[in-house]
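Quick check before the chapter quiz. The format below is the same one you will see on the exam, so make sure you can read both the input and the output lines.
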Amino acid sequence: MNLKIVTGALLALGLTTSLATAADLKVYISSQHQPQLWRQVLDKFETANPGTKVSIETGGNTSEAQAQYLNTIMSAKDPSLDVLILDVIRPAQFAAAGWTVPFEGKDMSSYLPAYAEANTVDGKVVALPAFADSMFLYYRKDLLDKYGIAPPKTWDELTAAAKKVSDGEKNPNLQGLSFQGKAIEGAVCTFLLPYWSQGKNLVENGKLTFDKTAAVNSLKLWKSFVDQGVAKKNIAEVATDDTRKEFQAGNVLFAVNWSYAWAQSQGKDSAVVGKVGVARLPAVSGGEQTTCLGGWEWGVSAYSNHKDEAQKLVEYLSSEDSSKFMAANGSLLPTYPAAYKDDTVLKAAPWFADALQVVETAKPRPVTPRYNEVSEVIRTTVNAVLAGVTTPEEGATQIEARLKRIIR
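Here is the expected output.
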């Protein structure tokens, strides 16, 4: 890959956005989002802006852990953080709480529409995109090739493939499928994938459109993977990075995960370098293939003592050149459509050529100001079903009853 082109563009961008005054800024970045690569972007920014120093604070390898920490910091009106990375579901929440400052007059037309919309609240741009994301099906290309199996397009095909490979390999450490069963945000997507695949939505125009039959089918599907031995018995304890680590160690045939896992799977510590394929997530039989929209956004703390400087930094971090750099070096999906056709990006991550369609058609999680409560209901119930504490039927009944109290 020609990193000189990308890093040169970053440096050039930094020179055109030099800060009028020097400042010491602190950026909060998730520990799972390759802070070491963002450090390189920040180094270019510092070089272009003499006297300005930017430090990184890392934390939390789940969306919930990050949100809990930031909620504490923001509630205390703590000025120690200037720039925050936020899950795509949170900019509206943080803006409503008065925790971030808007970007006046910002043109969002060059970004992917889903992210322009996610960061615009009541006509105000409250955050800028860091990187795009959606869930993909990762698979062991070498093992599917060995047994003459095509990437599955339905969950039934995945189950059959997992059993065929398991019978052939006779490796007790090889899981057929890993996904997020722990009571985290990823479990909301776990529930929604087959639910959406049945053509159902959870919320439309702010109104609850819950379909109990579809919910039962969704919960039954995930529990069936456990019952049939396709997924491991303690899948209810598995978080996002657990799936990534197990797949990277060569112990998983199929994995449901976000785009960040690709770069990790090709790293020096990976046991599956050159053996990984990526495809759209399967559909339920007779349904459509769907996936869950993800992504992360940069917000500026309302309690920062350097708001103007922090906003200029965020403009830099959210630029097309920064997006291309993180795509080429960290396999983080760009937030700019044009970047998916960039030669440098495609040379580093050829699978991005097919990723744009997936990202553009990914479905956002329910849009409601009470999303945190909706999330808590779904993820805890999914977890209880997978742990065998609750049946799929009981779980669907509980979700329906609780969501009716939240969304009226």
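If your answer matched, good. Residues 1-9, 11-20 have pLDDT under 50 and may be disordered.
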